[in-house]
Amino acid sequence: MDRRVTKKGDDASGKERPTLKTLAFMTGLGVTTVSRALKDAPEIGAETRRRVQLVAKQIGYRPNRAGVRLRTGKTNVISLVLNTEREIMSFVSDIIYGVSEVIADTPYHLIVTPYSRSQDPLDPIRYLVETGSADGVIISRAQPNDPRARYMLEHGIPFATHGRTEMGLAHPFHDFDNYAFAGEAVRHLARIGRRRLALVTPPVGLTYYGHTVNGFADALSEVGASEVPFNTVSIDHTIEQIRMRTAQLMRRDDRPDGIVSSAAAATLAIVAGIEDAGLKLGRDVDVVSKQSSELLHLFRRELLVVNEDFRLAGSELARAVLGWIGGTEPGSLQSLSKPSEVLPYRV
Amino acid sequence: MDRRVTKKGDDASGKERPTLKTLAFMTGLGVTTVSRALKDAPEIGAETRRRVQLVAKQIGYRPNRAGVRLRTGKTNVISLVLNTEREIMSFVSDIIYGVSEVIADTPYHLIVTPYSRSQDPLDPIRYLVETGSADGVIISRAQPNDPRARYMLEHGIPFATHGRTEMGLAHPFHDFDNYAFAGEAVRHLARIGRRRLALVTPPVGLTYYGHTVNGFADALSEVGASEVPFNTVSIDHTIEQIRMRTAQLMRRDDRPDGIVSSAAAATLAIVAGIEDAGLKLGRDVDVVSKQSSELLHLFRRELLVVNEDFRLAGSELARAVLGWIGGTEPGSLQSLSKPSEVLPYRV
DNA sequence: TTGGCAACCTGTAACGTTTCAGTATATTGA
DNA sequence: TCAATATACTGAAACGTTACAGGTTGCCAA
């Protein structure tokens, strides 16, 4: 079955989508000349160039992606690789929009490549590399020793990671300064008189787990507060688990009077746990939490929040991959975003 | 610049990605035969077919997308078109995962095509159709008279809408039964003694605005309760606006004792507004809200919720587009999902 | 024996693009 | 004046795939 409705020939009539051949016919030039004229090649006369570009614009010529891709191998695709189970909800939408903003006026398309719990996180990456499905890749949940980053470096495909790695290899990344966040959180709690602090960590194994834990520990000793260990949960646990274990913790005699939480969803559970234990937020205990949308202050006005902007992260990551694809030194495409101040309830 | 690192020739050695030519060389057959053997064409001998398929699997042959696309026009791409400003956060992530689940074991890729406030919603659709960038499209925020659906029908590109249209034209859709939701909500409120009800509607202009309003009105007269008009906001308004106007409403003498909310984010604002007015949820007023993740019960235990499953919506929409692409009658690819019961706080 | 036919396989062309290796014309240098 | 050279353009080939229009072989009926 031939997909064409009518035979086109060289006549350039009809409603078919224009190709280089159409342009060549209309301008009376060769296909090669047209192709080069459109990309401002120097060996094409200035007038010819303008003429071709004018006609191209007039008839709305758009290069055929399949043609380009087949010939050059360039896909004009950026792939965002996401974990279907563990990714934070607002992260997904914000980062997509952030990426979109940046690639909107480029020829790039964004494809979303998900993988699930059951799979090796390397699987989708291998697929992308082996099939050459993308010119660049964005991954999240970076690990200190990240096999995905290593694999992509080995195979020479440009990528950017959300979060840093610690492999001594330079690659683009964007990260939120979680060391600073945890530190600020501790200092703020200390400032309002809290001395016994607990931390609800990021998932063990991700790089920013370490950053957060270190920021927390360093600030603790700086302000002379003490830590109440709370290693039984991380923000990757379910709402129910976090809630239950927080309640357990808060019923103990040596319970904390301040908690630092690395994610908004976990914070909802933490607060529920606190209240399950019959305690009151703001009186018996204060909680500082990261959030990426303005919801926590509506939830409990007593919550102390620090904002992390995922849309910004998306934009930065997109800029970074595009930069690398465009030939910029990967080591220079790294950015770290500083946390906002700890914000108390605004009336 | 030629992208190939080494000249391949016909020798099938090296680390290049295998093509039909490679397979042809290895099996000693012609390229055409290999191509047909892989798609189980009847004019290929049974043994040859098995042999080719075996070799193909062994060396991990994967058809080149650009080749197929160029030759056949088939992109193997589904595009999800999203509004960057107005889309509900959890909607984006859940629907993406829902779609992904379905296309995971197909050759399809998912591309996300966003558009913003400033643009005509038809723009991205036109782009997709004109450039032939996708085999199928999923759109959200369906309107009774939806120019996007009309355009795609006219241009013969398969699509599915999240929400129904009312143009008398058959096309695939998935929708949540918001008429039933609003009705159930009203009946539940009546059952617990609420008589003066207000509705926070979906965005005016979307089809499900009408469904919701009608379900609300019909149930009101069924149970003999009265409506407190609250037309100054919809769930597309900002948190601040909803909060402020809810507070205003709740300070009036004729304030409602029951509110039905069409979205979780709006509900947070509504509750804040209620409390701003010095009233207490569950005592002075009850609120029934739709939600798509389990957060509202953590927020205020007194909230009454109905769950809407966006991941399911994503799966259904994907199945629908794929069905249409596969030749199924579009009119038969329609589904409506019934709301859960109104759930009070679970201990 | 021969013609016909089924079963199985093959080469060529085309999709739209870019690159390579030119060609034709005008311009320059001596 | 003639050759060398720069300028402006061109055709053919190739990327990997599929559709079309054959080609060979073997077998059977006449």
TrEMBL record, chains A, B:
Start and end residues of each HTH lacI-type domain: 18-72
A Pfam cross-reference name: LacI
Alphabetic keyword roster: DNA-binding, Transcription, Transcription regulation
Keyword Transcription in annotation: yes
UniProt key word Nucleotide-binding: no
PROSITE patterns for the chain: HTH_LACI_2
Gene Ontology MF annotations: DNA-binding transcription factor activity; transcription cis-regulatory region binding
InterPro entries assigned: HTH_LacI, Lambda_DNA-bd_dom_sf, Peripla_BP/Lac1_sug-bd_dom, Peripla_BP_I
Name the UniProt record assigns to this protein: LacI family transcriptional regulator
